[in-house]
Amino acid sequence: MAWTLLIRNGTVVDGTGAPAYTADVAVAGDAIAAVGPGLGGEAARAIDARGLLVAPGFIDIHSHSDLFYLGCPAAESKLRQGVTTEVVGMCSFSPAPVHPARKALTAAWIGEIGSRVAVEWRTFGQYLERLRQAKPSINIAHFVGHGALRLAALGPEDRSPSADEQRVMERLLAEALDAGAFGFSTGLVYPPSAYAQTPELIALAKSMAPRGGLYFSHIRGEAETLEAAIDEAIGIGEDAGVSVQIAHIKASGREHWSKMDAALRKVSDARARGVDVHADVYPYTAGSTKMANLLPPWVPDGGNARLLERIADGTMRRRIIEECALGGEGWRSVNGSLGWGDIMVATCSKPELEGLRLSELSERMRKPAAEAMLDLLVESEGQVAMVVFSQAEENVVKALAHPHVMIGSDSIGLSAGPAPHPGKPHPRMYGTFPRVLGHYTREQRLLSWETAINKMTGMPAAKLRLKNRGLLRTGYAADLALFDPKTVKDEATYADPHRHPTGIVYIIVNGQVVVDGGAMKPLAAGRVLAP
User: Is residue 530 part of a domain?
Assistant: First the structure.
């Protein structure tokens, strides 16, 4: 029999968690045609995978590459990690739906995740069609953001929706599900999603329950309110009868590190009583978000323009500092207590400041760190991204090892090619999956190869209810990752983040080889997936 591609002599890790075994893998077109030892027949191309692990392509269950596909369809920074499918529309952010009268407002809000584009769509379906036209090299599973639903229905105000506005959000959610959304996400520390009360979210979740939609949540707090916030997310799923995903589970801030065991236990206990709840984690002690998220929730009420007015006003600025400053040593926020040395400027309007800790920025600007931070936000029109060192390594290890926690990068943006790229983004943009494989699996032996691969493939595919991806089986989509278990390693660092990993040798998306012998071959191989 003639195959499109025949992968010989590899060690297959099929994504189920079952023991690895030696086998050949045959691909015909965009699907896996056969798996077994000594497969015969001719092939248009053969790859000798001796010494390599052959796994399903990795599924990044939590990413923020929305809109970056339009400018970077090659998605090299993800593909070269072994990722063949990204889940986006996370933490309440999605580029659609858009109210015609609030197009500029929505564009500015979308820009807060790092990409400014012309909003050429109104409905979620129109946006997905624009995404298909971009011809990405990677598969995309999209959620609709609760923040987008709120902006479209009632704008950026800090209030509860009226009965009519609630019905509008439910209608927009239904339209998004019809178009191909997998569910909706919340970001309950990010306006306007943060302004929602629990009943609003339960009603939305109930409205999509008959359709099988999923509820993914950046919970209402990962520091002081961590346990109550997890209870809220689980309660929404339990009351509405929908599946729940807790985003980037963590205990943030040194004074809250001891809460991690209780947080993970809540996931286990809820599952024991029948709630379909999981979590995801990235393998780093630092997170990344917009610097404006360090401000009290009343500051961004009304949108970015109002935020800038408030932090530029002397009286308002003094109020902000009085609420949040920890003497001269640091800052109190939803991320817990942070020292000025724990906060690093990732991207801003002044490239020479990128990579500086706020303690260093304070010295350079010769002013208190709080004033330096607020001045930087004003000068950058609120568009400053940061890396925040707020977690304990032992808690990252606990989350990675938990049986119901999968891997998600939580990374903002994509990059392509060897050319220099701006800023000092979090290294998870380039290194999440090889870090799990190299550091935590090979070096630390925290996970077996089979368990690590399951957390990246079969487990997220089951969560998304993908029927033909995430496992290396006959008839499944030919999304494959071939890597060297002896050398796979993340190379990206906080000081030098724009570095691709080593040891990822071949990546195949829908039967097409897009990483070939470690070299990128950008092809329009990806698809916008539907539930």
Answer: no
DSSP-derived 3-state class of residue 50: coil
Residue located via tokens 């506005």: 165
Q: What is the DSSP letter of 163?
A: H
Count the neighbouring beta carbons within 10 Å of the beta carbon of residue 483. Answer: 26
Answer yes or no: do 242 and 269 share one domain.
yes
The answer on 326 and 263 residing in a single domain is no
From 357, 388, 419, the end of a domain falls on 388
Under DSSP, is residue 146 helix (H, G, I), strand (E, B) or coil?
A: helix
Asked if residue 525 is part of any domain, the answer here is: no
Same domain, 313 and 223: no
Q: CATH number of the domain at 491, please.
A: 2.30.40.10
Please state whether 26 falls in left (phi above 0), alpha (psi between -120 and 50) or beta.
beta
Q: Assess contact for 479 and 56: CB atoms under 8 A.
A: yes
User: CB neighbours of 424 closer than 8 A, spacing ≥ 6?
Assistant: 344, 345, 346, 347, 354, 355, 387, 494, 495, 497
Strand partners, 437: none
Claim to verify: residue 473 and residue 497 sit in the same structural domain: yes
3-state secondary structure (DSSP) of residue 97: coil
CA distances from 463 to 387, 396, 411, 416, 499 (A): 29, 21, 20, 29, 30
Q: Are residues 50 and 195 in the same domain?
A: no
On whether both 369 and 479 belong to a single domain, the answer is: no
User: What is the rounded distance in angstroms from the CA atom of residue 317 to the CA atom of residue 41?
Assistant: 72
Question: What is the tally of structural domains in the chain?
Answer: 3
Q: Which residue bears the tokens 């950008």?
A: 522
CB 465, CB 328: distance < 8 Å:
no
CA distance 169 to 207: 10
**CB-based contact 288:386 (threshold 8 Å):** yes
Helix (H) or strand (E) holding 44: strand 43-48
**Which residues have C-beta within 8 Å of that of residue 439, sequence separation ≥ 6?**
283, 489, 490
Domain CATH code at residue 107: 3.20.20.140
122 and 41 both lie in a single domain: no
- Identify the domain containing residue 319 by its residue range: 290-388
Question: Can you tell me the distance from the alpha carbon of 252 to that of 23, in angstroms, rounded to the nearest whole number?
Answer: 44
**Residue 364 in domain:** yes
Q: Which two tokens stand for residue 214?
A: 């999923």
Prediction pTM value: 0.96
Residues 6+ apart with CB under 8 A from 272: none
Same domain, 300 and 381: yes
- Is the residue at 529 inside a domain? no
> Could you tell me how many helices (H) and strands (E) the chain has, helices first?
17, 24
Divide the 531 residues of the chain into consecutive groups of 10 and give the mean pLDDT of each group.
93 98 98 95 95 98 92 94 98 95 84 73 97 96 98 94 98 98 96 95 98 97 96 98 98 96 98 98 95 90 88 95 89 88 94 96 95 95 93 98 98 79 91 98 98 98 97 98 98 95 98 96 93 93
In DSSP notation, 437-484 reads IIIIIIIS--S-HHHHHHHHTHHHHHHHT-SSSSS--TTSB--EEEE-
d(CA 360, CA 353): 9
